[in-house]
Every structure is written in structure tokens, then in C-alpha cells.
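User: Quick sanity check before I run a bigger batch. Here is a single chain. Can you write out its predicted 3D structure?
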Amino acid sequence: MQRAQTCAGESRAAEEMLAGTFKPADTFFLIESSLSDAGGWRHDTVKSAAKSGQFAGILRHLNTVPRAKTLFIRRPSRADKHVFIARANQPQPQLFQAQLTEYAELLSLDMDGLAAGEAPLINGRAMTELDELYAICTNGRHDPCCAAYGNPVYQQLVAHAGEDRVWQTTHLGGHRLAATLLAFPQGVAYGHLDPADAEAIVTNHRAGYLLTHKYRGRGAYAGHQLDSAAHQAVGAAEALIRELTRKYHIDELQLQDVQMMADGGRRVRFVALDGAAYTAAVRSSLSPPRQTSCGEPPKALPQHEVAL
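Assistant: Done. Predicted structure follows.
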């Protein structure tokens, strides 16, 4: 009997478009915990932790931040209580870290200061700012492709970026696009990664460049609060504009505006540092049903047609 193809294998075979597949998040909370006292990482780790246990109240507190995304992170060789906060929706995205004594300290996080753009305070102490961090999904209990593709990429990322900068994480969204990764502080999302991509990811991220052929989108566009559909359309437009103009530096293009067209599409305009404007028309529709997760029924997904 022929073995059924995995969701990631099917996505790769179909050469599924990566750009425009990441949903928006202005603020990211990354909490170090393997959740060993709750049976480890689960299929829906964050949702399960929010229902009961020591993280339930903490996650409710963090979710008072608009457009927040919380992830659990870990390293195979250690267990501690680090927390990272990334703010993506600002002209200069920032990443902060702190080491906790108890997770309950997160209840003291100064939400007003965080919203005002100040350095986050926990128990009155300012968190330390960092320049980079990589979070790659290895949550095989959510989908086996995440572990099968994610773990080898994790090992290579550690080799090129250093263990302190690389973390395994719970579900990022889009496990058919494994291996999936977020690069901070900008919250740049990549997919279909292989171990051979690790060096290029680290080298380019440190230099401020995007790899458009692996690019899914980013956490947020500074100064904009787009709904999920518009945000994904912008991600699709950005990738094509960058490829055609060869403007690969992340700061080289800034989103100017998104306008609805009469046919339901979106007109997306980016402006370059030299003042040049680039416009793309994005028409989104639903794909034929495809496997989104191993073992689950196929379903239609958003797909984008982009034209300049």
C-alpha cells in the first residue's frame, strides 16, 4: 500500500505560495516552558494552557494586549524560566528578555508602559533589549511535519547563530509549510525551510535582508493595524515587489496604504527610501481543498494572485 503524502510534502510538491500565509501580531510573548507538569506540549498547547493550570491567569493577562501572540519555547538541553517580548508594530521593532524566578511574575508586567512603547517592566525591573532571536516550530504533537522538518533546521540554526539565540517553539501557524520560523525582533516569518537554509537565514537577518523565496510575511507593518485578510494580501504583494525591484533590505520598503478595489481585490502601495512608489493589485480567493495538517480532512485555503 502506498503511504499517504504528508501535509508538508504535498505543499512542497505543489510549490504552494508562501508569501501571504502569516497572520498579524503586533506583540509576541515567548515563554520558556516544556509544560512537563501538564503532560508536555500538546496539539493546541497555548489554548490548553489558557484553560487551566499555572498559566491560565498569566495568559489571560498577556492577552489583554491588542493583537498579541503567545508562544511557549524550549531548548532540549536546559530548563529555565526565560521570557521574551517582541514589539513588531513600530518603526524600529524591539526585542526584550528577562529571566524569571516564578512564572507568576508575568502578572506584574506593566501593560501601560508596554503599550506606550517603553521598555517592559516586570516587578518594576526593566527587561534587557536584544538584537536577534530565532524561534522554529518543532511541536510534533501538533503535526508530525513540524518535528520532522523543524528539528534538523533547529540544529543548523544553533550551529550558525548560537544556542542562546535559537529556540524551539509551539505552533506558529501553517504546519504544512514546515519548517516554519520567526526571526525577531521584526517577527519575520519563513516557511519550507531546510537545514541548508539556516546559514542564509542568519546571515541575511543579521544584515537586515529578507529571503523572499522563503518569506511568508511578518508580524506587523509599522503604523498599520490590518485585519488578517488585508495583512496576508500585503505580505503577498511585498514579496513580489521586492523580488522585481531587488529591494531586499527590510527597511528599504515601507507600507504606505491598502485600498479596496471595486472587484474586491486590494491595491497595496509601498514607498522606497528614495521616494519611489510601487503598487500591486492583490486578488485573494480560496484554493481547491488541500491537506493542511497530517491526518485531517483537506480544506480550502486563501491564495493570492499578485500583479503590478
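The first strand starts at residue 27 and ends at 32.

User: Great, the batch can go ahead then.
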